[in-house]
């Protein structure tokens, strides 16, 4: 059970999020730092990098309805069932998703609101904080932001005539609709789908080209489309951009699974932190959550400026090795445990050694935890006591045997 002191909204086994009260059960796995990050709404701040990017993307879709205030507590039905996620999809597991209780989660993506938004509008953008249990490093944080875009047309509308021609150079243009795992839906004609996909791709290429031209003016920007799978779109793609000598995934998208009668359309889901890290030169994802004026005062509404790092404080590495006692050890549970203790004082956690005992088949792990604060020097005593708490909790909560 979550028990937070002071003015917390949890009492006995109840948890209240945005005025809805839930009873906790054996699925509940929301930690205190996660609970506390709900409602920060950094995507609504016009002078915050995440808010600035939201404004740029929104300016590309002037006629769309905008939703930016939807609470993160949603039902399993909204987040998974209604979108066609298989019952054994790994995203549903407790190790990947924050459950409020068996039937409710913190949304893992903005797609959780698609069905409800379509009841009000045929073209919309949704911006929101989303929550996923994940690794700890400079580009992963358990809360990040997504923008969902979607547009529907009556099935027999002449979509072709609504496409504006944009000048973007695409390294790998639209792959054809050939994959058995990524097919055109049987109720759609190839001609219609080609028009929808051309509209989707030119719209997104336009957004990305606009964003990247702000830092890369005049330089040739390479993007490519890669086929992928989502349970709620088909065919589906990811858009990748060539950045620092590698392909970086920015968004997923596709033709919406036909759920709404005689309509046809597209949807996309764009991650804001990745773009913001590139655009503003922000080296560590934790900085987006900083309340330090040295961070916040660097940015102005509607303008892109490269982040000037203030001094880096020293980091301190601590290793911990242990045997698992059951075969149920999951790395995300360990990450969550560390976040619960060290919060934003942990920069990254890496598995540096793994060993399987030849006779007992028990697994042994060695992890290296890098502690570093972004706004002060940590003392040895502080780091040692954090590490001691991590070691204690490993035994008490994950049932491992320290080596
Ligand atoms: C989705 O979340 C789908 N809902 C996207 C979608 C919407 C597809 C509508 C089709 C139609 P995915 O898990 O790939 O897909 O996440 C989408 C984007 O969010 C990624 O491309 C990436 O930019 C961002 N993202 C995903 N995981 C993380 C993470 N841990 N940290 C930062 N950004 C992330
Ligand atoms: Mg993806």
TrEMBL record:
UniProt keyword ATP-binding, yes or no: yes
Localization per Swiss-Prot or TrEMBL: Mitochondrion matrix
Catalysed reaction equations from the record: tRNA(Phe) + L-phenylalanine + ATP = L-phenylalanyl-tRNA(Phe) + AMP + diphosphate + H(+)
Keywords, sorted A to Z: Aminoacyl-tRNA synthetase, ATP-binding, Ligase, Mitochondrion, Nucleotide-binding, Protein biosynthesis, Transit peptide
GO cellular component terms listed in the entry, alphabetical order: mitochondrial matrix
UniProt-recorded name of the protein: Phenylalanine--tRNA ligase, mitochondrial
InterPro entries, sorted: aa-tRNA-synth_II (IPR006195), aa-tRNA-synth_II/BPL/LPL (IPR045864), Fdx_antiC-bd (IPR005121), Fdx_antiC-bd_sf (IPR036690), Phe-tRNA-synth_IIc_mito (IPR004530), Phenylalanyl-tRNA_Synthase (IPR002319)
Enzyme class: ligase
Function as written in the Swiss-Prot or TrEMBL entry: Is responsible for the charging of tRNA(Phe) with phenylalanine in mitochondrial translation.
Biological-process GO terms, alphabetical: mitochondrial phenylalanyl-tRNA aminoacylation
EC numbers, comma separated: 6.1.1.20
PROSITE patterns assigned: AA_TRNA_LIGASE_II, FDX_ACB
Residue ranges of domain Aminoacyl-transfer RNA synthetases class-II family profile in the record: 51-293
Family matches, as SUPFAM superfamilies: Anticodon-binding domain of PheRS, Class II aaRS and biotin synthetases
SMART domains, per the entry: FDX-ACB (SM00896)
Superkingdom, natural source: Eukaryota
Family in the record: Belongs to the class-II aminoacyl-tRNA synthetase family.
Pfam family, one: tRNA-synt_2d
Annotated ranges, domain FDX-ACB: 311-403
Molecular function via GO: ATP binding; phenylalanine-tRNA ligase activity; tRNA binding
């Amino acid at each position: 059970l979550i028990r937070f002191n002071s003015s917390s909204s949890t009492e006995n086994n109840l948890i209240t999020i945005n005025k809805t009260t839930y009873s906790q059960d054996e699925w509940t796995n929301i930690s205190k730092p996660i609970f506390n990050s709900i409602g920060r709404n950094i995507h609504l701040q016009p002078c915050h990098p995440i808010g600035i990017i939201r404004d740029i993307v929104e300016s590309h879709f002037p006629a769309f309805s905008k939703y930016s205030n939807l609470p993160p507590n949603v039902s399993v039905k909204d987040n998974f069932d209604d979108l066609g996620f298989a019952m054994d999809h790994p995203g549903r597991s407790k190790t990947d998703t924050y459950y409020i209780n068996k039937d409710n989660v913190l949304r893992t993506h903005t797609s959780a609101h698609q069905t409800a938004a379509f009841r009000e509008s045929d073209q919309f953008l949704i911006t929101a904080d989303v929550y996923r249990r994940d690794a700890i490093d400079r580009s992963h944080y358990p809360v990040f932001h997504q923008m969902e875009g979607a547009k529907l047309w009556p099935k027999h509308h002449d979509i072709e005539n609504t496409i504006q021609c944009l000048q973007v150079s695409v390294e790998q243009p639209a792959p054809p609709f050939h994959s058995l795992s990524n097919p055109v839906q049987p109720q759609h004609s190839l001609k219609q789908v080609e028009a929808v996909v051309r509209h989707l791709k030119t719209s997104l290429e336009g957004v990305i080209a606009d964003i990247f031209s702000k830092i890369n003016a005049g330089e040739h920007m390479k993007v490519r489309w890669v086929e992928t799978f989502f349970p709620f779109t088909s065919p589906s793609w990811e858009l990748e951009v060539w950045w620092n000598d590698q392909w970086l995934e920015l968004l997923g998208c596709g033709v919406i699974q036909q759920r709404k009668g005689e309509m046809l359309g597209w949807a996309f889901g764009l991650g804001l932190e990745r773009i913001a890290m590139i655009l503003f030169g922000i080296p560590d994802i934790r900085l987006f959550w900083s309340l330090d004026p040295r961070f916040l005062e660097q940015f102005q509404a509607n303008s892109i400026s490269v982040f000037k790092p203030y001094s880096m404080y020293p980091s301190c590495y601590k290793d911990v090795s242990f045997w698992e006692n059951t075969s149920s050890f999951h790395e995300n549970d360990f990450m969550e445990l560390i976040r619960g203790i060290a919060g934003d004082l942990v920069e990254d956690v890496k598995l540096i050694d793994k060993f399987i005992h030849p006779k007992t088949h028990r697994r042994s792990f060695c992890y290296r935890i890098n502690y570093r604060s972004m706004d002060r020097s940590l003392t040895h005593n502080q780091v040692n006591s954090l590490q001691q708490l991590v070691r204690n909790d490993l035994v008490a909560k994950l049932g491992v045997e320290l080596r």
